[in-house]
Amino acid sequence: MKSVSALSEAQVGESAAACVAAVAAEHADAVDQAGLLPVHALEALRAESLLGLLVPHRFGGPGFSLRTVTNICRRLAEGCASTGLIFAMHQSQAAVAIDHAGESEWHQQLLLRMAREQSLIASATTEGATGGSIRTSACFIDLQSDALHLNKSGSVISYAHAADIFLVSARCSEDAAASDQQLVAVLREQLTLEPCGRWNPLGMRGACTDRFNLMAKCSAQQIFPGRFADVMSLTMLPSSHILLGSVWLGIAAAALGRAQAFLRKRNRAGAPLNPIANLRLAEGEAMVHQMRALIAANLSLYEADDSQTSATDRMVSYNTLKVSASALVVRITEIALRICGIQGYMEEGEFYLSRHIRDAHSAMVMVNDDRILGSLSSVVLGMPITRDV
Ligand SMILES: Cc1cc2nc3c(=O)[nH]c(=O)nc-3n(C[C@H](O)[C@H](O)[C@H](O)COP(=O)(O)OP(=O)(O)OC[C@H]3O[C@@H](n4cnc5c(N)ncnc54)[C@H](O)[C@@H]3O)c2cc1C
């Protein structure tokens, strides 16, 4: 296995990520059509040691920044959004494992394992009884004399069959309130996944997102120190919105790239100039630019070690990124379709956009935008709307 530690962050972005992106792009249509995991891309991610990029040096990783990982998400998603999504979700979970290991010996050992074995981490935060409400759980941590038991019913989990580690949220105990949650890192061999029927989704089909009854038996040491509320607000929410935003940017850029190629081909063939389509391309590029700016601003906020920005302002900013980027990606793929016309509408061919359009629509339901806006609405009511930049 190649060591990325010897390379600079920029070199990894240029070389290893480009290599995986090419593999992902090659298999993207087959993965989408069959609704199968992008196994070749996952193998390439492991072979290039890209799964452990965030793990700090002292735990055997290269300790790369979220910024580098964000750019890799976009790059992968340009060729295959499902691969980009898996990579983004995994890295968000990795960021959680790194930031919240604290002094826990068990979790520090987990970080060593993540770098050494290039483990793939999945997320099990949703459950049938609570739907998309991640900040509440019905299931609970049951500390019995032999072990920790945890049964989570109807949890929606992406790439579960490929994952090595699962971060599972649950109430702290049987009598804890629904929002009094903790997070447990469960190893693949410590859990059983009972499928609740196979999903046949519209888009992101390669992520193989299915619903499962999850039954885990592990050690009490595997509970992350601290409360899930802090894990969520400090790491899981910002990192997932930034990384997924970058996946949606990749979809948008790829779709608009096809529209640009379509117009160039037309122009080369001597077709009459189409000022309306050119205007649409500029409109699409302006939206791509907005997405990039939103991601950049939120990355800076995430990286900044400043106490100037209140927790509320941060929350509003990260959630704004999510709902704005998920709306923009749909609009940009639609603009690309208008430009390519019937050639974009076909299921095959050089300019087909079906996969991009279907993948783009996952963004608004992957934690429903209306749920996010609903939680923002009471906060925004009390905020000054007119403020300096
Ligand atoms: C591609 C994809 C991959 C996923 N992968 C994972 C994964 O790996 N792990 C995981 O745990 N989950 C995953 N999920 C699940 C996801 O995080 C959400 O839980 C799920 O999409 C929400 O499903 P829902 O629309 O039924 O529920 P809800 O979010 O409950 O939405 C249903 C409806 O209720 C409305 N609603 C409900 N409550 C409120 C409220 N308080 N305020 C406003 N509106 C409300 C919504 O607007 C919507 O109309 C994935 C989802 C997708 C699409």
UniProtKB/TrEMBL annotation:
User: By its UniProt entry, which Pfam families does this protein fall under?
Assistant: Acyl-CoA_dh_1, Acyl-CoA_dh_N
* PANTHER family named in the record: ISOBUTYRYL-COA DEHYDROGENASE, ISOBUTYRYL-COA DEHYDROGENASE, MITOCHONDRIAL
- Provide the family line: Belongs to the acyl-CoA dehydrogenase family.
Looking at the record's lineage, which domain of life comes first?
Bacteria
Q: Acyl-CoA dehydrogenase/oxidase N-terminal domain: from which residue to which, for each copy?
A: 11-117
The cross-references to InterPro entries, in alphabetical order and at most eight, read: AcylCo_DH-like_C, AcylCo_DH/oxidase_C, AcylCoA_DH/ox_N, AcylCoA_DH/ox_N_sf, AcylCoA_DH/oxidase_NM_dom_sf, Mito_Isobutyryl-CoADH
Q: Keywords assigned by UniProt?
A: FAD, Flavoprotein
Q: Name one GO molecular function term.
A: oxidoreductase activity, acting on the CH-CH group of donors
Give the Acyl-CoA dehydrogenase/oxidase C-terminal domain ranges.
237-363
Transmembrane feature ranges: none
Listed cofactors:
FAD
**Organism lineage:** Bacteria, Pseudomonadati, Pseudomonadota, Betaproteobacteria, Burkholderiales
State the protein's name: Acyl-CoA dehydrogenase
